[in-house]
Design brief:
With 291 residues, this protein is of the alpha+beta class. Helix content is 28%, strand content 16%. The structure holds 2-oxoglutaric acid.
Length: 291
């Protein structure tokens, strides 16, 4: 079944150039996603940053423009770094973003690239990029890397990167090294974010920037070297990425579907003595409020 609302033009499927993908290691599928759905996600992101601000009676910009998202996010970052980080993480939990990145439009691209049995590799990522939103002491731009090193899934695994805001040469574009997937798994050196590719064959000249519009999707091999473009235009750039393995790729099957990802949770209470029964009674009035 299709989800027409997630397609740019209901009933149509954009052409996916597999030949280019095999040669270059990536392919841009223009107009693959519904721009109204992307705009709605931007509004939700902006509202997420707005909720803690409202509680503190601070101003909140309405709507989902780049300016509004950045203003709300910057306000929260200025008063509470931890709340900002948690909220930025929360944007990866938006149901709408999950629906989009697991929509038929996306899975069809994955299938067109040869993954006969697509399965999701890991959690959705949201890349909120702006020099204004830099976390003190942190590093927010991705260094040159190959996603396979963190995925360790099927050999044909694919990453899909979809901006919700326009991406130009000057708004931290995704930069890829065409053909670098053909070099295999490359050596790395340590980096605060992720192991950084270190290979003399990959130089500054290797990279091209990928200008894109909301609705466009770039699909790239997990072996393609890529990074975040350095230059920003002062406003936030937002893009979601998701990763798919092929459950029928023979080496992945033979290895028994191992995963490098570890999900765990804290067992101590993060807010001491919370919740008491009186708190729970705010949701369930019948809860005895006598603790
Ligand atoms: O959005 C970016 O700039 C980086 C994205 C990235 O490196 C990834 O999806 O693996």
């Amino acid at each position: 079944m299709t989800h027409p609302a997630r397609l740019a033009t209901p009933g149509t499927r954009p052409h996916v150039d597999r030949e280019t993908y095999l040669k270059q290691g990536y392919v841009i599928v223009r107009g693959a996603l519904d721009t109204a759905a992307l705009a709605a996600i931007n509004t939700e992101i902006s509202e997420l940053f707005g909720a803690p601000l409202r509680r503190l009676r601070l101003p909140v910009d309405s709507g989902g423009s780049r300016e509004a998202v950045q203003a709300n996010a910057a306000r929260l970052l200025a008063i509470d770094v931890e709340a900002y980080i948690n909220t930025a993480r929360m944007t990866q939990m938006l149901a709408s973003a999950h629906q989009l990145m697991a929509s038929d439009a996306i899975v069809d691209i994955v299938r067109a690239l040869g993954l006969s049995f697509p399965v999701i590799s890991t959690r959705l990522s949201n890349h909120i990029m702006s020099d204004v939103l830099r976390i003190p002491g942190g590093y927010h731009k991705s260094p040159p890397h190959q996603d396979w090193r963190s995925m360790q899934g099927s050999l044909d695994s694919v990453v899909l990167w979809a901006p919700t805001t326009p991406v130009t040469e000057h708004s931290h574009p995704l930069q890829v090294a065409p053909g670098s997937h053909l070099l295999g798994l490359l050596d790395t050196v340590e980096h605060i974010m992720t192991p950084m590719v270190s290979d003399p064959r990959i130089t500054e000249d290797s990279y091209v920037s990928l200008p894109m519009q909301p609705g466009d999707v770039v699909a790239f091999s997990s072996f393609l070297v890529h990074r975040t473009g350095e230059t920003g235009d002062g406003q936030v750039r937002i893009a979601f990425s998701t990763r798919y393995n092929n459950a029928e790729e023979p080496t992945y099957v033979a290895h028994g579907y191992p995963t490098p990802y570890k999900y765990s949770y804290r067992t101590d209470l993060m807010v001491p003595d919370f919740p008491k029964l009186a708190d729970i009674a705010r949701i369930f009035p019948d809860a005895a409020a006598g603790d």
